[in-house]
Amino acid sequence: MYNIIADLHTHTIASTHAYSTIAEMAVSARDKGLYALAITDHASPMPGGPGPWYFSNLRSSVPLFYKDVLILAGIEADVIDFEGHLDLEPIDEERLDWVVASIHDVGFPGLENPDFDKCTALWLGVAKNPAVNVIGHSGSPKFAYDYEKVIPAFGANGKLVEINSHSFDVRADNIKNCRQIALTCKKYGVSIVVDSDAHFETQIADFHPALQMLEEISFPEELIVNSSKERLHAYLEKHSKIAKLLPNT
After folding, report:
1. pLDDT at 1
2. What is the mean pLDDT of the chain?
3. Are the beta carbons of 214 and 163 closer than 8 angstroms?
4. SS3 letters across the chain
5. Residue 238 CA to chain centroid, in angstroms?
6. Which of 30, 117, 136, 193 is disulfide-compatible with 100, CB 3.0–4.6 A?
7. Each residue of 36-57: pLDDT tens digit?
8. Cβ 232 vs Cβ 226: under 8 Å
9. How far lies 114's CA from each of 108, 181, 211, in Å?
């Protein structure tokens, strides 16, 4: 079984469909032996998203290390059109450490009538966005895209492809595509992260369904960025402003 040392996609009560505080999430991460935790609440335009000051104030308010856990101040930003634009405000982009880019089918007018070519262009646009770290749960059949074309572009642009464990519980129609995405990452040597997408403190580090699938396809551990502190630090050194704050990087 792989050793995952960081949960890099989680939600707090600031996303009003989640139910724990940052402090509660950090305690759970510590108690489960994690080194790092990314707090990635939804951007304000998402239904139930936090207010306009939440993200610009997050890094300055939450300690870098809290409850002995490295806390990444992040966001789950929504893709809002087929050009790959995000609902990420420039001031938030400047002040955050970690950006997960995802699609949620919540009626953004720029995402009406998706098709394979539109969604391929969408993710190629996201791949070029220097603010993005993670491609979040991209296995939706409604927004299916050309994995052979797009996943190498993710890798070339330093994007980590997420294998979202929560999808195995709540997005059953995504599971087949999640496996194919992982296989394509393996084929092209593209790095991934395994995340819980936790919405409550007990879900922190709940990686089992995703890890089981990765074991079934013999996915290389060296391509899982959050499988060691060294791999995570190496990625942050290249792709996150937080690197300059970390010891021994």
Report:
1. 78
2. 96
3. yes
4. CCCCCEECCECCCCCCCCCCCHHHHHHHHHHCCCCEEEEEEECCCCCCCCCCCHHHHHHHHCCCEECCEEEEEEEEEEECECCCCECCCHHHHHHCCEEEEECCCCCCCECCCCCHHHHHHHHHHHHCCCCCCEECCCCCHHHCCCHHHHHHHHHHCCCEEEEECCHHHHCHHHHHHHHHHHHHHHHHCCCEEEECCECCHHHCCCCHHHHHHHHHCCCCHHHEHHHCHHHHHHHHHHHCHHHHHCCCC
5. 17
6. 136
7. 999 999 999 888 899 989 999 9
8. yes
9. 12, 19, 30
- What is the tens place of the pLDDT at every residue in 1-32? 799 999 999 999 999 999 999 999 999 999 99
d(CA 130, CA 219) in angstroms, rounded, equals 27
Asked if the model's pLDDT at residue 99 lies above 60, the reply is: yes
The span from the first CA to the last CA of the chain, in angstroms, equals 27
| Share of residues in the chain with pLDDT > 90 (%) | 91
Predicted TM-score of the model (pTM): 0.97
Q: Are 85 and 79 spatial neighbours (Cβ–Cβ below 8 Å)?
A: yes
Residues with Cβ within 8 Å of 57's Cβ and at least 6 positions away in sequence, in order, are none
